[in-house]
Task: structure prediction
Amino acid sequence: MYDLQELFRWIADVTVMEAFESGVLDLPDFYFTGDDYRYRFETEAKRRFVEVLRERFNAGVRYKNRELKWDTVVEQKAVELARYLVGRAGELDFSETSPNLRRTDDEELRRRILGLSQLEAKRLGIGKSTLHYLRENVARRDWFRVYGKVRRKLEVSEDERIEAEGET
Result:
């Protein structure tokens, strides 16, 4: 009757879709055991997926006029449910906050990646192989994921970029 998992299942579902779309997971990461008719996935693929899932649960969301992380919202809902079940709360509100399903591969980011020189990428702490991977994904025009650490480096303000160019 009280199943918090269903309220937040969409977080895992969206993360699975993002993992496949971005290439974090791919079909060769899975194998069929045959004895129990289940597909399993390789240990390294699990690690990659858990990292993407962790990023999703640590993403910010506006909830009750505050900026929280999804894992905090889930925890608060569990506490609310417990208080209701032991009679400390007279009502239970499971109205969802609206999920942020904003894509991370917007046109501005695509232009930023395509306009990024190797020298500027190096200054930002972005390696050659990462820059190559980003450009390759931008050129394909498919959805792609830019991990948080790299995204923050790419989001350097225009003023900082001009200042860095003036130092050379």
